[in-house]
Amino acid sequence: MSTIAFTLMFAVWLMFGILGKPIKEEFGLSDTELSWIAAVAVLNGSLWRLPAGMLADRVGGRVVMTAMLAVTAVPAFLVSRAESYGMLLVLAFLVGFAGNSFSVGIAWNAAWAPRERQGLALGVFGAGNVGASVTKFIGPPIIAGTAGTTVVLGLQGGWRLIPVVYAVLLLVMAVLVWVLTPAHDHKPGSSKTLGEMLRPLNQVRVWRFSLYYVAVFGAYVALSAWLPLYYMDNFGVSLATAGLLTAIFIFPASLLRPVGGWFSDRWGARRAMYGTFFVMLVTTGILMMPNGRIVIDHADGTQTEHLAYAMHVVPFTALLFLLGCAMGVGKAAVYKHIPEYFPGNVGPVGGLVGMLGGLGGFFLPPMFAYTKAWSGFPTSTFFVLFLLTAVCLLWMHLTIVQMLHEQSPELAEKLEAPDRHTPDHSDPTTPSTDRLEEARA
């Protein structure tokens, strides 16, 4: 039930990705103005992830998830009544609250799942990211079939009908979650003070995990909203086709999350992260190459062209598919780290990692727009992602090298061994030496 609810909330959170084109045409917006509509939704869907995760640990995920579903239905409906760009920005920001459901679900599921299965359990829940593709499928046919008409109760058709449909579904889902999930909920943070819940956040490790999540999740969110417009502008496809092609990226980036969790349970999260970052570097490195050719001016005044290069839609989509596969595995691998290192504080730590990862989804779309305007190359989008991935991989590798130098030689092949010099303050009953012996075993 939590996965279904999260799928719906994620669809609502990112609905402006497919609604952007008709909104842009109706209100006469520039690419930069349009990018801010999606960006403010992502912003509000990230700001409250830390307190939402902490609240779920304290009062139970069932209560918090139900309340979020009901509350989000109000601004979702009001989007259909927007009459100005400023009003759209405000309502997009409020609708973005749906994105905070992620940290609620992470805390809720971690409280119920045994430690040895948490990677898979959190991966299954996180597969709700596939909600980003829901609007890509249902949006274009609804928009095309109802444009310029008035449906029941005086509601306008076209893009304005989509948020009304979502508002109804959110209310129905709130009732189902409340009725069908266990009334008795686990509350691992109910007896902890605020200081105890926040104490793990002073560790550099938490902030490093957060940067990883910016690369595998923030970039995923940004691309999910950015790609429909990218396809239409650079390959001349229709809105419906752009939505379907974007879904080819979204599906593996979401549905492979359980696979990433299972892989991390069995072979370790850091091995999964190495594979993720390597594939992301290769794919973004190719995608960032601009179309063009080398022109040589000869002494006799003639010109010749050499090494012409152009990325066509099929190889572009294939590379995006591989990029999505890597992100799907990487998202689960990042969250496998959290219950391992912070078993008693999954809510606040997971909330902070999710918050910063989501904020990456807020900053990246405007960065895509501004780098495109500055460079003139649409492919600068992927140059931004290439640099981000390179920084993450370098920081992770240097950390592991340092850890292996500090640990005894027999741990040289065990990438998952925790740092013996950095105790896990989130669970004082589990000393670092015990965890080191567990890693050796």
From TrEMBL:
Record-linked PROSITE patterns: MFS
Annotated InterPro entries: MFS, MFS_dom, MFS_trans_sf, NO3_transporter
GO cellular component: plasma membrane
Disordered: annotated span: 412-441
Keyword check for Transmembrane helix: yes
GO BP, one annotated term: nitrate assimilation
SUPFAM superfamilies registered for this protein in UniProt: MFS general substrate transporter
Source organism, top-level taxon: Bacteria
Phylogenetic placement of the source organism: Bacteria, Bacillati, Actinomycetota, Actinomycetes, Micrococcales
UniProt keyword annotations, A-Z: Membrane, Nitrate assimilation, Transmembrane, Transmembrane helix
Name of the protein: MFS transporter, NNP family, nitrate/nitrite transporter
Molecular-function annotations in GO: nitrate transmembrane transporter activity
Segments of skewed composition (Basic and acidic residues): 412-427
A Pfam family assignment: MFS_1
Localisation per UniProt entry: Cell membrane
Family: Belongs to the major facilitator superfamily. Nitrate/nitrite porter (TC 2.A.1.8) family.
Gene3D superfamilies: MFS general substrate transporter like domains
Cross-referenced PANTHER family: HIGH-AFFINITY NITRATE TRANSPORTER 2.3 (PTHR23515)
Major facilitator superfamily (MFS) profile domain: residues covered: 1-404
Organism: Ornithinimicrobium cerasi
Membrane topology reported for the UniProt record: Multi-pass membrane protein
TM segment ranges: 36-52, 59-79, 85-108, 120-139, 159-180, 209-231, 237-260, 272-289, 309-334, 346-370, 382-404
